[in-house]
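Each record in this resource describes a single protein on a pair of labelled lines. An example record follows, reproduced without changes.
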Amino acid sequence: ITPCSFLPLAIGSVSEFLLLAFADTQELQLLHFALFLGIYLAALLGNGLILTAVACDHRLHTPMYFFLFNLALLDLGSISTTVPKAMANSLWDTRAISYEGCTAQVLFFLFFFGAEYSVLTIMAYDRYIAICKPLHYGTLLDSRACAQMAAAAWGSGFLNAILHTASTFSLPLCHGNALDQFFCEIPQILKLSCSSSSPREFVFLVVSACFAFGCFVFIVVSYVQIFRAVLRIPSEQGRYKAFSTCLPHLAVVSLFISTVLFAHLKPPSISSVLLDTVMTFLYSVVPPSVNPLIYSMRNQELKDIVSNLFAYVHLQH
């Protein structure tokens, strides 16, 4: 060991990172590849069907489906940022990802992830207006307002991603280049740095945490008002219909928030490479592939239109 080995690695000296290897044998790596391929294809199919249905059928040109369209786009972007590289590494028996590729993964994953959280918050507002203030729905959520809210969601996600990515990759690295995760994730990169975080990163984390908590409170308050309004509906059929429009969104939000909270706020005493990998898989891969299923199961209108699409394609062949 030379004295130079104790010096921080300059940013430019790191040409690549090593991602977590899921298995030691080629057979298990191919099994991992097949598992991720199946999940990725399911996500492509489910979100692609939602995008096609909303874009092609004028009956779905409403605020609720406009935001669902945005959610499907973000889900596709999110899972396409992480899973293809993991599949390629398993297929070609390698762990390497270039420095530029790692930076791009962090940037795009934070972008899609942050924008998705904002869109889910907006969708809670959409359900609140539809149920609690139905007479003002067309005014408060006209096409211009919907476009502005969607642009704000995408813009906030991009700004958040730029700030965190720039701050993280400006840190000098002292502890090699091996990441205990199947994609580049900020907490794993911080473990390689000479210090746990920079003052700028701490400020950005506080701002992001405040924003995330504000969105969470907004969602909770919206649903408290929604449930109060639904319980005042006199007919049982009316209550069931109102609940049915909210349950898919509530299920998606619950899955999204619960997995993220447990992954990042679990006690250090129970932390391990396996548990961290499983929890990261649950919040980064599962929601984009499951969200279309959740929405289609409880939405008869969407199911009918998707069935018509399949029937049309079948007739064409």
